Structure of O-methyltransferase C-terminal domain-containing protein:
Amino acid sequence: MADAPALASQILSESLVVHAEITHSNPARSRAAEDRRQRVLGLIEKLKRLLQDPHQYLHEYVSTNWDHGAFYVVLEARVLETIAEEGSSAITTLSEKSGIPADKLLRILRLLSCQCIVEEVHDEVFGLTPVSQCLMDDEDFKAWVAFQWGDSMYDWHAQRPAKAERFRKAMRGVARSMDPADNLLVNWFRERYSQTPFTVVEIGGRYGFASFTLAREFPGITAKIRMSNADMQARGEGDVPEELRAVVRFEQRASDFDPQPVEDVGGTVAAYIVRNMLWNWSDDKVVELLRTFLPVMAKSAQTVVLVCDGVSPARDSADPYIEQAFRRRDITMMTMHNARQRSPAEWQLLFARASKDLQVTFLAAPTWLMPNPG
C-alpha cells in the first residue's frame, strides 16, 4: 500500500498527457499516445490491486462471469436492437419485446449499466452507450462477442454428482465470508443488552444459526431456534457446540406460519430473528410469516423483529464499485435460485402489508464485501 500514492501520481500525470493527445475530435492515435494509454490502463489495474485486500481481489476476479452471463442474455434476446430502434426504451417495452420478465431484465440491465454496456437515462429507461453502439455498427463483431456454449450449473452438477459436496461447501463458505448478518445482530444487542440477560427466538436457519454467535457474545442469553423441518432441526442440534447446549435449544413447529406461542407474551422475548430466509420466499409467504409475530408484539412493546436479508440499492445510491457488486449479486440470486434481492421500497411495502402499525428501520452494513470474522 506504500506504493499507492506514487502510483496515483504517476497515473494522473500520464492521464493528462493521454487526454491532451487523444480526443473525440481526433480519433487517429499516434503510436506514442496509444502506448501511454495502455500504460495508464495498466497502472490503474495495478493501483486497484493495491487497494484491494486478497479476499476482495479474488472475489472480484471470479465474479465477472455474472457480468458476461447478463451480457449474453441481452444479446440473445436482441434487447440492444430494441433500444437502438427507439433511441431509449422503458423496461416494460424491453420486457414485452424480449419475453424476459421485467423485474429480471431490470436487474440484468442495471448490472450492464455498471459496465457501460447500456445507460439508465431515466429510472427504468435505458439507452445505448458508445460500447453497445459499437456492436450495433458491426454485426460480424457482435456475432463473435455473442458466441457461447455449455450447460447450466444445474445440468452440469447433475452430470457430476461427485461435485455436490464441493457445491455445498462453496455455498457455506461464501455465506460465512460475505454475510454481515451476525455482526449486525451482535452490534444491535450490544447497544441495548450489554449487561442484561435476554431471550431471542430465531426462526428457521440457513448456513448456520445466529443464535450460536449471540450465545458466545452474551453469556446471559437464552436462545430458542424454531423450525418446521425435522431433518434440518436434527442437523442443527448436532452442530450445537458443547459449551452452548445449556443456553441454545431447538423447538419443533408444525408450520412456520403458526402464530408464535402465547408464552412469548409478557416481555420474555427481546427479539425474533429472521436471518437469510426471506430472499427466496414469495411476497405472500413473507407477509404471512411477519403476521405470526403481531399478537406477541401487540402485548409486548419492547419485542422487535430483526430481519437480516439482502437489499438491492436504488440506482446511483452507492459508489460505482459497490453498486456493481450488488448488481452482480442480483444476477447471482436470480440465476442460481430464481430469487431476488428486494429494494428498500419493496421491503417497506411487505411490512406495510403485514401491518400498517409496524415501524421499520433499516440498518445497513458498512459494505457488503466486509468479511465476516466468524
In short: The chain has three domains: 1-51, 54-149, 174-311+341-354. The domain at 54-149 is CATH 1.10.10.10 (Arc Repressor Mutant, subunit A).
